[in-house]
Design brief:
The protein contains nine helices and five strands. The chain is mainly α.
Length: 248
């Protein structure tokens, strides 16, 4: 990457740190159009929206490059949601990319094999992605259940932040964290954000787990193991945690 592009990315990221109220709607709309522009890929077959359809969600597939592979393929990477992507601590499944713009560039150049995007293109795409808010209905923007939320959601939140130790890695607010974690799935990977998690199956970096319930059970056991006292959730506890996750 050129020094000019690095400097431009830093300038874009600094501007993105300004309050959202100052966002340029025209830039967001430009990014929305670029998000569906297949000319960003080498063969003009792929756009960002190919893997992130539905206004920035996910196609629920696992990929090596632009090739769909079986869920659970150790070299595969599942498509994460982009809802609330602007709030994440780091990017990429490796958990090593600190800037959204840098991650977008990597997808275009390394995965889609497209030409080096201009800083203006990256800025517009990042503005669009940052405009995709969380979509909760029963919790606030930090994941705290509303007063009117069902009792199961409230119990699930208490378990998520308490006995299940889930909040140690999925920090409420962004629901991820800056440092990658080794959860015995083949190395250290980014802690995935949990916003819209009910819609993002299959789970984990390689899509190895089909259901949210199975993923939540596995992570409860891993989180409590890391905390020094491994436990398994009861059926009722697991149901409540899943109810909470479904509310995000």
């Amino acid at each position: 990457m050129s020094l000019r592009l690095k400097a431009a990315l830093l300038a874009i990221a600094t501007a993105a740190a300004m309050p959202a109220a100052g966002a340029d709607q025209a830039l967001i709309e430009k990014g929305r159009a670029l998000f569906s522009d297949t000319s960003l890929s080498a063969d003009s077959k792929f756009a960002c929206a190919t893997c992130h359809p539905k206004n920035g969600h996910t196609d629920n597939k696992t990929y090596i490059g632009t090739n769909v592979v079986a869920d659970g393929d150790p070299m595969g990477r599942s498509t994460p949601t982009l809802w609330a992507a602007g709030r994440r601590s780091v990017y990429s499944w490796a958990g090593t990319v600190p800037m959204l713009e840098t991650n977008i560039r990597g997808i275009i150049v390394n995965r889609m094999k497209g030409a080096e995007p201009s800083p203006e293109t990256l800025g517009a795409l990042a503005a669009y992605v940052r405009s995709l808010p969380p979509q909760p209905k029963q919790v606030d923007e930090n994941g705290v259940p509303a007063d009117a939320a069902p009792a199961a959601v409230k119990r699930g939140f208490a378990l998520f932040t308490g006995a299940g130790a889930c909040g140690a890695c999925h920090v409420p607010g962004s629901f991820d964290k800056a440092d990658p974690e080794d959860i015995e799935t083949g190395g250290k990977f980014k802690v995935a954000s949990l916003w819209a998690v009910s819609q993002t199956a299959p789970y984990f970096h390689d899509g190895r787990t089909k259901t949210l319930s199975d993923a939540a059970k596995a992570m409860w056991e891993m989180s409590t193991k890391k905390a020094g006292k491994q436990t398994s959730p009861t059926a009722a506890e697991l149901a409540d945690v899943v109810a909470y996750l479904n509310a995000l």
